[in-house]
UniProtKB/TrEMBL annotation:
Presence of the UniProt keyword Transmembrane in the record: yes
UniProt cross-references to InterPro entries, sorted A to Z: MFS_dom, MFS_trans_sf, TM_effector
Organism ancestry: Bacteria, Bacillati, Actinomycetota, Actinomycetes, Micrococcales
Residue intervals passing through the bilayer: 21-42, 54-79, 86-105, 111-129, 150-174, 180-199, 229-251, 263-283, 290-311, 317-340, 352-375, 381-403
Membrane topology of this protein: Multi-pass membrane protein
Protein known as: MFS transporter
Annotated GO MF terms: transmembrane transporter activity
UniProt entry keywords in alphabetical sequence: Cell membrane, Membrane, Transmembrane, Transmembrane helix, Transport
Length: 437
């Protein structure tokens, strides 16, 4: 990996887009992500309208992410053995068929909650292969030198879709219903298929697929457990997935039960989070590097902000803090993604990323139901507070474990220093060497 010692000039903020293959893939990805966000918002609101239950929205989230929890590790092994480009072609075609089926059911007026559950589960099954393949394929598009920048650009594109998609979906929900959001998402999948066919294979940074052999799944798990930067990042992701990333459930409850804002308000809340996340994605491109302490600290900040949201007295303050939540969310998730990819060998990266994605999405399968139950039982405010306080607690515990393992302690000073907070060795304090926190 190329080590960067100085921040790149602003003209190089999106330097990875100078690579033709990556530029084509990213432009199609922007269209696809907009469609994905449209479907996600419309799907959750459709279930809420059909069932009248926030818990049902949580079940929808669980159905979509359960396949990754059950089969995610096998998806990573499959990705390591086969062409990522071919995998993405098939997954995008499958996503097109499923989105078109949901659109047809909804526009015909025959859609029922169980239809949404089944299609959500099937889409989640597609994600088992699509997500790890997409993560690893970025390296083939840009090479290792531009990987960190490309990950940040990917996040920017995802959040730009999150900025446009919920707004469009909210407008369509109010004007013509959920069906057209599903139809447009189906069309967006075809843009990715076209982009994959337009790529120049000769310009890809190909990696040799792993040879089929016994024990490859166990090998990937041992690798994750042996690398502290990966293991503790995945542990933090697990907590965030269970409690913090179930925002569709929480925002649906706030839109309907707290502020009476309806479908338009639900779309607005998601758009505001995407505004902050998009700003965070741009900020992440300016990072020189990423460290485990940065990821754990970002998780604590995100959790703290999300807990603050629970106590906002009105919709205006709630909306303003949501932008901050989106910003912190993106800094955390891009940091975690970058650290895991940059810390793993290409020979096992598919399996490592499948563990990461399994925890990230599979945790939300459990978290969606859990947070739905908490909101139904104790109310939206309690649910939002728990979603923020749990990662703060987890970040504190992980930080203490890491400090003890490294025989370090935290020092706080009000004097001039590189940072007000530093981490220093506990022994031999007079000759200690400070490490910037």
């Amino acid at each position: 990996m190329t080590v960067i010692h100085h921040r790149p000039p602003w003209r190089d903020t999106l330097v990875s887009l100078r690579v033709r293959n990556y530029r084509i893939f990213t432009l199609s990805n922007m269209v696809s992500m907009t469609g994905t966000w449209m479907q996600r918002i419309a799907q959750d609101w459709l279930v809420l309208e059909l069932s009248g239950s926030v818990a049902a929205v949580g079940i929808t989230v669980a159905m979509q992410f359960a396949p990754m929890l059950l089969f995610g590790l096998f998806g990573g092994v499959f990705v390591d053995r086969h062409s990522r480009r071919t995998i993405l072609l098939f997954t995008q075609l499958a996503s097109f068929v499923l989105a078109a089926a949901l659109a047809a059911l909804t526009l015909s007026g025959g859609v029922q909650v169980w239809h949404v559950y089944v299609i959500a589960f099937l889409l989640g099954s597609v994600t088992v292969f699509d997500n790890p393949a997409r993560q690893v394929f970025v390296t083939e598009l840009v090479g290792p030198k531009l990987l960190h920048n490309a990950i940040s650009v990917n996040s920017s594109v995802f959040q730009l879709g999150g900025l446009i998609g919920p707004a469009l979906s909210g407008l369509l929900l109010v004007a013509v219903g959920a069906g057209w959001s599903f139809a447009l998402n189906a069309v967006s999948c075809l843009f990715v298929v076209a982009a994959l066919l337009l790529l120049r294979p000769s310009e890809l940074h190909r990696t040799t697929p792993a040879v089929r052999a016994k024990g490859q799944l166990r090998e990937g798990l041992r690798y994750v457990a042996s690398k502290p930067a990966i293991f503790w990042t995945v542990a933090m992701i697990a907590v965030m997935s269970l409690f913090t990333f179930s925002m569709p459930v929480l925002l649906a409850a706030y839109a309907r039960d707290v502020f009476n804002a309806g479908a338009g308000g639900y779309g607005l809340f998601n758009t505001l989070m995407a505004v902050g996340a998009f700003a965070g994605a741009i900020a992440s491109t300016r990072r020189l590097g990423i460290h485990l302490r940065t990821v754990i600290g970002a998780a604590a900040v995100l959790g703290g902000l999300q807990a603050v949201v629970a106590f906002m007295p009105n919709q205006v303050f709630f909306s303003v803090v949501l932008v901050g939540v989106g910003f912190a969310n993106l800094l955390f998730i891009t940091g975690a993604n970058s650290l895991v990819q940059l810390s793993s060998n290409m020979g096992v990266r598919g399996r490592v990323m499948s563990v990461y994605v399994m925890v990230l999405l599979g945790g939300q399968a459990i978290g969606g139901v859990l947070m739905g139950w908490i909101v139904e039982t104790y109310g939206a405010h309690v649910g939002m507070a728990i979603s923020g306080l749990m990662p703060v607690l987890a970040a504190g515990v992980i930080a203490m474990i890491l400090l003890r393992q490294g025989r370090m302690r935290v020092r706080v000073t009000l004097r001039s220093a590189p940072r007000f907070i530093t981490i220093v060795p506990r022994a031999d304090e007079e000759s200690r060497q400070s490490f910037v926190a």
